[in-house]
Design brief:
Elements: H1 5-15, E1 19-22, H2 27-40, H3 46-50, E2 55-59, H4 65-83
Antiparallel strand pairs: 1-2
Amino acid sequence: MVKNNWFLKFLSDIINVRVDRSRIKETTALGAAFMAGLKIGVYKSLDDISKNWQVNKRFSPNINKMERLKLLKGWSQAIKKTLI
């Protein structure tokens, strides 16, 4: 999903926050590697790890509140229908 620009823009609009995509797309594996490195002392702290992170692209919310609420209402209705 992180490779999909439309999805990340939509996510940003829906949750109303900026979404930053990492330069490295496989962040799950990278996160596990960073945690292992922290455990064995390659990194001294989470701050040391965060210095390795770089943004690839930023997605900022750009829809109005009424449109956001309309989309969220539709999502909520879809979820309710799947649970019935």
